[in-house]
Amino acid sequence: MQLSAPPVARVVDLVKNYYLEEVVVRALRGVTLDFNEGDFVALMGPSGSGKSTLLNLLGCLDRPTSGQYFLGDEDVSTMADDDLSDVRSRYIGFIFQSYNLLAQYTVVENIEVPLLYQGCRLDERTRQRCISLAELVGLGDRLDHRPMQLSGGQQQRVAIARALVNQPKLLLADEPTGNLDTHTSIEIMGIFQDLNRRGMTIIMVTHELDIARYCLRTVVMRDGRVVRDEPVRDRLDAVREMQKLQEEQQAVQLTT
Questions:
Q1: In angstroms, rounded to a whole number, what is the distance separating the alpha carbons of residues 46 and 140?
Q2: Which end of the chain has fewer CB atoms at under 10 Å, N or C?
Q3: In which region does residue 100 sit, left (phi positive, over 0), alpha (psi from -120 to 50) or beta (all else)?
Q4: Residue 222: phi, psi to the nearest 5?
Q5: Is residue 4 very low, low, confident or very high in pLDDT (cuts 50, 70, 90)?
């Protein structure tokens, strides 16, 4: 009998409390979820629902108050800080809404940053790997540009490439389209859908219902608990949505 592979990530009865003087903020109240290989999950919920707290715990940027967090078959919820840092670099890619690029670095140099933190040797082989990632996200003609020379969408593309440079098993994104217009948001979701089709497991926080429809699964949170976990119905395809948007824009131009 063949045993099934463990989930890429699994949280069991996860609790996170924050203590503000005499006030206890119960951010997570016993969350249990599995994220399997090839999942593309939208984490949703109102402000204060716990979705960003959960994403930070999944990214090993914070520790739970209680409960367990497994990456593969490895329990990381009680690891020391140095071990958590190693886990982040080996397993996880994180994409922030604010991009977090280094202003003085070029596109390729920004993509290389996680390799520097790992102490990797930056030789011609690693540079070619970073160039390939830049090309994957559509920035092959912007390799020597710095963030100030890029649009918001292009900066987000750099952030995606940087998150992929360590070949993570889990890609986490915090409101990746929050600062972008409709056209650029569809482009970014197209990159995510392409990565997901290649087997990447993606968990994304978003408050936008239309953006969540590009995912495969929606997890809705409220008051620190999961209140809904279901497949996405009427899923959007980024290629088709871009074609529709372009047709609408052309129709508007013809009438003006």
A1: 38
A2: N
A3: left
A4: -155, 130
A5: low
20-27 mean pLDDT? 90
Copy the structure tokens of residue 30. Answer: 């016993």
What gap in Å lies between CA 47 and CA 27, rounded to an integer?
11
Residues in the chain: 256
Q: Rounded CA gap, 54 and 231, in Å?
A: 19
Q: What number of CA atoms fall less than 13 Å from residue 208's CA on the CB side?
A: 18
Q: What is d(CA 186, CA 110) in angstroms, rounded to the nearest whole number? A: 23
Interval 101-116: pLDDT, tens = 999 999 999 999 988 8
Residue 88 has which token pair? Answer: 């982040």
Counting DSSP H helices and E strands in the chain, the numbers are 8, 10
Q: Average pLDDT for residues 22-38, to the nearest whole number?
A: 95
Percent of the chain with pLDDT over 90: 75
Token reading at 193: 């859908």
Q: What is the pLDDT of residues 194-205, one digit of tens each?
A: 999 999 999 999
Separation between Cα atoms, residue 72 and residue 92, nearest integer Å: 12
Instruction: Give the count of alpha carbons within 13 A of 152, CB side only.
Output: 13
